[in-house]
Amino acid sequence: MSSIISRPEPTIIQGGMGVAVSDWRLARSVSQAGQLGVVSGTALDAVLVRRLQLGDPGGDMRRAMAEFPYIDMADRILEKYFVEGGKADGEPLKNTMVIPMEPTQEQLELVVVANFVEVFLAKEGHDGLIGVNFLEKIQLPTLPSIFGAMLAGVDYVLMGAGIPRYIPGILDRFAEGKAAEMPIHIVGAEKDDNFVVKFDPVEFTNGELPWLNRPKFLAIVASVTLASMLSKKASGYVDGFIVEGPTAGGHNAPPRGPKTTNDRGEPLYGKRDVVDLAAIAALGRPFWLAGSYGTPEQVAKALETGATGVQVGTAFAFCEESGFGGDIKDIVFNMVRDGEPDVKTDGQASPTGFPFKVLQIEGSMSDQKVYEQRTRVCDLGFLREGFKKEDGTIGWRCPSEKIAAFTYKGGDAEATVGRKCVCNGLMTNIGLGQRRKNGEHELPLVTCGNDVAGIKRFMKTPDSTSYSAADVIECLMAGIIIDSAVAAR
Ligand SMILES: Cc1cc2nc3c(=O)[nH]c(=O)nc-3n(C[C@H](O)[C@H](O)[C@H](O)COP(=O)(O)O)c2cc1C
């Protein structure tokens, strides 16, 4: 099997995987292997402050912070959070909640610096391309996050989990040194309401703004309708689309047809969810296919449809360089070796209301018995929803928080059923889980695609306990011949 491709865009995009599963190390390795490495931009402020409190082993955070162009800002963060040698085991970590609608300069600095650090490290020491992935559902930190990533010279911004129509125009404005604003979804907002967040690079930098390149913008979509709308009505140019199907890891778009479930409560996808790729191609932009494209055969099949390439997550999620903690990789490797891992498309787990893929692991948050013993608490808040209060001001609530608190804020008790604390679970997955004063510690919550068993193909021998990002790329690119004359253009 061989396919000839001839274009300057990457064939493989390593999908953004939050929180910090696709961290700077993974993205850098993928980029060094000639493809597009993407860091997750989700909750990077929380990630940075926890890495600093754990002593920043290896000094990578501090090395990148020393390169931040406004050094006083980086120093203030170090001063507040860095703990030499790291906090003792079991000692609670200082928390940072997601920033409010009108953040202070200090809150903005943390988000900007955190995004700068992750992209800076991913780009360090090579000339490859690096992208950053954001979720449209998490809106409050988006503007300073994009700015921080642009300060570090990010090449692509990728966004899904919603309708990212304002992002391309925001990239244009920041590249012109101008302020940008973005409307915020608020439950109960009326037609005349104008809830927006704003960020002014000139004000933030006190007038000392460097020249910034405009990164390309790729929208992650699950339908032609959305891709077509974005290509006509987004606030600026959308440089391409990632068409993601319902077998992909992470959040999935809800089914478009009637809302039916199987006997495990998993949403059922049907004919209306099959994307017409000819219609996507007719939009005239590069596009990549995602969701179980982790084999060379699938890559070749994608190229035959006219796609520029594929976006792959699960295969990279468990490679050596990914941010998942070592014990999680061991558990998953054993599951894959000993049988079929059980991946549930959980329609309730995520507070966003979007289906979320959850790998069933005993003793993790997916284990109902264990989860019921957890004290419900919302202390990161990245997935909270804004709602309009009777007095016209805005409140914030999360269906995974304490039920009484959620319903007191007008939330529907029904919406709390089956919800998991995705924010805390994802932090635990990467070794940055919260330890509480009462001795409790947060549990992991692992997401991956339906094709997780396929990671076997990257292991060199049946007993292998690891594989690298380069192994994945070598396997996926087998049989693909790059027309380098065109690719170099
Ligand atoms: C662990 C994990 C976390 C993910 N997190 C995100 C995310 O934060 N944002 C996003 O747009 N996609 C996320 N995804 C989806 C990937 O970017 C990618 O599109 C998807 O994994 C492709 O399908 P595959 O898993 O079958 O390879 C995640 C996937 C995995 C496996």
Automatic annotation (TrEMBL):
A Pfam family the protein falls into: NMO
Gene3D superfamilies per the UniProt record, alphabetical: Aldolase class I
Keyword Protease recorded: no
Keyword terms: Flavoprotein, FMN, Monooxygenase, Oxidoreductase
Region of interest called Disordered, as start-end residue ranges on this chain: 248-267
GO MF entry, a single one: nitronate monooxygenase activity
Secretion signal span: none
Keyword Cytoplasm annotated: no
PANTHER family, A to Z: 2-NITROPROPANE DIOXYGENASE (PTHR32332), NITRONATE MONOOXYGENASE DOMAIN-CONTAINING PROTEIN (PTHR32332:SF33)
Official protein name in the record: Nitronate monooxygenase
Organism: Novipirellula herctigrandis
